Amino acid sequence: MAIDDDNNSATPSPDHRDSPPPARVLLRSAQIGAMDAIMAFLAGENPRRALVQAPVGFGKTIIIAELCSRLIQAGRARKILIVTDLRWDAVAIYDALRRYHPAGDRGRPGGPLHVGQYVGGASAPGNVMVATSQRLLSHAKAQEQGDRASLIDDEILDGIDLVLVYEAHRTTQSALVEFSDKIAAPLIAFGISADKRTLDLFGGEPLWKQSFEQAILEGYNLPPRIYRLTSAPETAAGSAGPRARIHEVVTEFRDKLFSEAFPDRTMVPKTLIFAMSDAHANAVVEACQQVFEETQDFAVKITAHLTNPYEVLDRFRTERGPRIAVSVDMLASGVDMPAVECLVFLRPIRSELLYQQMLGRGTRRIDSDSLQAVTPDAREKTFFAVFDAVGVTAEGHFATADRIPRQDHHRLTTRRFRLSDLLTGGVLSVGAYLRFKSRRTGSVTTAVVRDDGSLDLLDGRVFLSPSAAASAVAGYPVNGWTAWVTEEEDAPLDQLRQTMLSAAVDDLDKLGQESATLRKATDAEESGSSDGSDSEAGSETEERVRCLAELRRLRRDADAGKPHTLSVREFIALWGARGRDAHLIEIIETDLSNHGLVTVPDFRLITMEDQVTVGLSADAATSPSDAAEPDAVDTPLTAATGTTRITERTKPSKIRQRPERGLVVGNLPSASLGVESVKPAATIEQAITTMLLHDYSQLAVMSGQRNLSGAVTWKSIAKARHQKRDAPLSAAVIPAVEVSYAEDLIDALPKITAHDFVFVRGPHNTISGIVTASDVVQTYGVMTSPFFIIGEIDQILRWILEDAIDIEQVQVLCDADGTRQIDGFSRLTMGDYQRVLENPEAWAALGWPLDRRVFSQWLRRICEMRNNIMHFNGDPLPDDMVTMLKNFLSLLREYCP
């Protein structure tokens, strides 16, 4: 549907001509440019979707309000839907629309603009509806499934002429684009940044764009001035304390505020402080009141935990008091606070998008009269001050931020637990006392939990992990999660860890169900079909939850003294795996660590058919000779000069230093097949008969499963009998060479080459097998065959693409920004082939009578196999995967030009 509006001015409604019109909100030049571009787009033939890319502080909410007013007033749209991801943004937009008075009576009760919302609870429909994306998409899915009891009445979303999307994430945008296509309504998205995949949704480029730097240069936004706070950057890492360090950082903020940022002021400018949690916000509010020696109304908390956050926010925006607002995420976006002149970061920010949104709280301009109404000693706002206690303003911060593990509750199921996670989860408090009783001496050591998740011993030493602290006290490796016990509950830390893990798994299950719609929408947008995507995403979550539930069962049985024994193949099947690659090993090690479990022997060091026992890791840490948990390996502590604080420099454990281990002797099948033997007192005829019956070239001479006396071979027997026709067995016995099952195969090769064979001492200290040179050749042959097949697939794919597709098209798809400098097909990787062939235009250039989607799915699996092979996965590919490689190669050969 084309929407046009030639009337750029607004006139009062005839029913209110005698009433004085309210003041119109005038659009600035940049906003007018964006508005003109939008109106031209809607006036075009069959408009579908467009992206308006505007900086923080640009006034996207004002543009949305003006756009809705124009279209509804002119009768060019009957109903407009506004969607955003965050509930708070939806509330802010709804509030702004209700307060907006562009002209005449359109913002007054009874006027033509009726705003409705659905962000929770019931709502009457309006001709402008505001909704969260989660509610909207849940409703859309319910309608598809014929659920008439869906949360939003059909009439609320009936007859939509236009969809406006405010700051939605890429995944949500894909789903909303699909939704707008289904209801045949144009979609306009407003955002501050966009990656390539987002741009692809909107034709490859924005309808209108302005950067933050441009907005500053044009005088539209205000620039920031950065001030680093150095007293206590650790303040942001804790939840509520300790109060002393929060007090220090607030004191430094106060001093720099009046000495550097605003030396001519006596009143604290309106300041917004971003804290890490609600409890942390409480502590910051208290510190602000104490440092500035002010009353309770001077600094307030505005978070979702308040019963009246909107009332407090309104006072902060429009009245002289309060001067400081402390929030977490609630005020990060969608809130217009032009009087704010200071932003203080006391929490780490890993998302550059979130950081830009937070800057938007300070970059807005304000006229002098409005500013002085809330800050009397201010003349004008020409900049805003940013006080950084966490390094968020440092150059290159966001280049590595995405690699920092997130601390949120749901991701605890994919990385190792830390003590700080127990604090965040509320199962342990800052300042809690822990005790550790030595098994050797019976002495008791006490430690205090610090706000950053470290342990503070009474002698002044500080440790970053419970295992490091316990090991330092005991003098040998100790599992700190089971050694440290809380004073109040008399519970080991591991018990708290298991409690929180159970809650995290339950949350993961709920999260997977709630986000299935969004994942389905993303996959459908990329593949062109929604069939199977939801079930695939759902099954992935279900499989993860099922795995963790099984680990909890293994832990319960291990606690009861009934550890489970199963083959390595059965063990890794808990993770839905058929082979051991580096990524899987990392996940398994993480899950075992979180559940306090270990496998004996190490599941990585034996064959798939060998058995492991899944038991408690505490059992493996009772002896000084046993290794500690991976998070417990630390270097000696060194005291900082002139202070009692101890700095602990940690290094990864040996396992973490070698995440991708190569083949070990135990990975060879023959290393665990057992050995045939004769006793030292046996006759040489007995040895010959045994070797003939088993077709062996060598035989062990043993007096027990663990006692290897030597070996006999056809060569040693012939040599003994040549020297003496009736020589006894002892004359034919040669020294036996043995290696450990855990020894790297590459290190054992010289011994195997020199002696033709070696005996293997297994995990239970028994002789578990024998490895010959032919075993090694066979193993490497099985592993290298897929390598050569992959190599030929790579060559043929490159030849095919080079023959059918121009390098310029490849550069656009694989190197749009030119950073990789792809100047020829020889620089392409398997991943590049995948990206090119998934593109419909590139696929069409091949002219193949094949289905692109099916081919792309196979190629994606081939790429995964290639990665495992190139990482030199110790397990050979299963036969069906090798067959898949061969079939794929045969297909390529058939269509190779």
What does this structure look like?
It is built from 32 helices and 29 strands. The strands form seven sheets. It has a seven-stranded parallel beta sheet, with helices on both faces. Strands 8-13-12-9-11-10 form a six-stranded parallel beta sheet, with helices on both faces. Strands 17-16-15-14-18 form a five-stranded antiparallel beta sheet. Helix 27 crosses helix 31. The chain is globular and about 115 Å long. The chain starts with 28 loop residues before the first helix and ends with a helix.
Rg (CA only): 34 Å
Average pLDDT metric: 76
Count of separate DSSP helical elements: 32
| Percentage of residues in strands | 5-15%
* Low-pLDDT residue intervals, each spanning 5 or more residues: 1-24, 102-111, 232-241, 400-411, 521-538, 619-660
Name the overall outline. Answer: globular
**Terminus-to-terminus distance:** 46 Å
Structural class: alpha/beta
| Sequence of strands across the biggest β-sheet | 3-4-2-5-6-1-7
Number of strands: 29
Largest sheet: 7 strands, parallel
Helix content range:
40-55%
Outline:
This protein is an alpha/beta fold. The chain is built from 32 helices and 29 strands.
Notable traits:
single chain; 897 residues; alpha/beta; seven-stranded parallel β-sheet; six-stranded parallel β-sheet; 32 helices; 41% helix; globular; disordered N terminus
